[in-house]
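Good morning C.,

I know you're traveling, so I'll keep this short. The sequence:
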Amino acid sequence: MNKKRFLLILPLLLLVSCADTDELYDGDAYATQNLLQNRYSRWDDGLVEPEESRVLPHAPNGFFYGSGDSSSPSRCYGLAEGKAWHPDFFRENGKELFWTEQGDTAYGNDIVGGNVGQWVDNSSLVGTVYGQTKKMSRYSKAFSSGYLSKLYNGQVKCDGWSSYSMVLLDKEGYGTIFSSEMQGGSYFAFSARGASDTPDSGKGRVLSMDITVTFYKYAADGRTLNGTAFLLPDVHLQANFSSDYTSLVGFSFQDANYDPAGTVGMSMTYALKDDPLGASDDFSDGASYHVGLSLLEVFFPDSTWN
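The C-alpha cells, ready to paste straight into the viewer:
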C-alpha cells in the first residue's frame, strides 16, 4: 500500500479543535487558505491492505446519504434518507433527534454558539441534536484528545469554523488506530461534503464519489492488523455551494454483515467518479483545480469501548 506515513513536527498550540475538546495538538496544521496544503493524509503504522472487500448498495439494506435528493447542491444535506430508512438510529430514549436545533435543516445550530477556538459546553443539545447526542467523545474520553478529536465532538457542519471543524482528504485518504477497542455498536456514519478550489463558490455543484471505509481488528497474534473494506459507490455530495451543507453517510453493521466487536481502527479513501467541472482528486498532479472530501464528523453511534 503506497500510503503517506509521516510525523508532523510543528509547534504545539493550545487550541480547541472544535466545540467540545480542549487539548494540546498541532491545531494550526492544515488551516491555510490553500486547499492543497490543507489535506490530512496520515496513515498510522500497521494499517495494511484489507483482507476482505465488500460493496454496499445505495438501498435501505445498504448505505444511505444525505437527504436522498441530489438533484441540486441546495438539496444535498442532512440525514433525512437515513432517518427514513432506519428511524431507530435517530432516536435517544424514545425521542427523535434532529440535524440541528431548528430541525432537519441546513442552517440551524448543531453546536452552541461561540468563537472559533473557544471552549463551549454543548450538553444542552444532547437529546435534541443528532451530532451532540451521538458523538464519540460521549462514549469514550479517548476520543477527546489529539488532532482527530475534531471528528468526534459532534460538529456536523462548518459553522464558520473553516479548517478547525473538518479534516480535508485527497484520494489517498487517511488511516488511524483508535486509543480504545470497540466492544459493540449498531452502525457507522460520517458527515461530509465536497471541497474544491474551482471558481464556482456560491453556485456549487453535485459530485459523485466512490468512498471506501475500512475497519481494522487485531489478528490472533495480537499484533497484526486485518482490515475489512466497504465500498460505498456513487455517493452524491455538494461542493462549493455552502460549507454548512453537509450530508450524513452511513450503514448498519448488520446490513454490512460485519461484527464491530474488536475494531481498533479505520481508514477512509475515495475516488472521484464524476465532477461537472472536471477537477482532479489527485492533489499532486499539477492540475489547475482539485476536489477533496471534507470530513466533518465520524460516528459509531450507541457503541461501547474498553
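Safe travels,
E.
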